[in-house]
Amino acid sequence: MSIFIIPAIDLRDGRCVRLMQGRKDNATVYDGDPIEIALSYEASGAQLIHMVDLDGAFSDPNSRNRQVLRKIISRITIPLQFGGGLRSLEDVAQVIELGVSRVVVGTLAVESPDVLARLVDMFGSRVCVGIDARDNQVMTRGWEKREIITAVELAQRVAAFGVERIVYTDVARDGMLAGVNLEQTCTISRESGLRVTASGGVSSLADISRLRGVSESGVDSVIVGKALYEGRFTLKEAINEGSVPK
Prior knowledge:
This protein has 11 helices and 12 strands. The protein is an alpha/beta fold. It is globular, with a radius of gyration of 16 Å.
């Protein structure tokens, strides 16, 4: 089995950044034009790019991020997955109209399950749910609000609405280069019966190898961000590692 590698672009004020543990006051800004980075990912073999509007996630409207989104969509030929601040049916419909292939909703899935059900009816598999958790408790509103519901409970709830995929992030590991929380990521897939994209903590090719080893569990893809920005390995190396037969 293989693991599908999805490079990430996180935007704050139109610039590429990575947060540590999802904290908006702990961001590293990276050099490089987000559009050129997206093009380089495509040239390196990416088949999907994951993009997050961090300003939207923190409820800080920022048109620069949307301008960058439009430009990237106009320049790349591969699909783009987008999340961050999509908290209404109108928000989701707007970015899909811009050309986003798949949206990731998080806070909306907790606060407005009726809207999530409508979105799944309207857009099907183009809607996936981002479950961000700290100590297995769901975090919303840009990882600043701790919910009562657990990650597993939310995964089971959204599965009942017809959601087909979850993007699961262990917030404590995100941006920390501390390795993926394999056990919890696999538990989410097993208990929900859904496909899961792992996110948060990838630091080495060994992490990708370990994910490949559990790909039969339903964890079939991984988002990689900071490790690429900091040169821990190249995207080509990650893709090759993800496709090596077991």
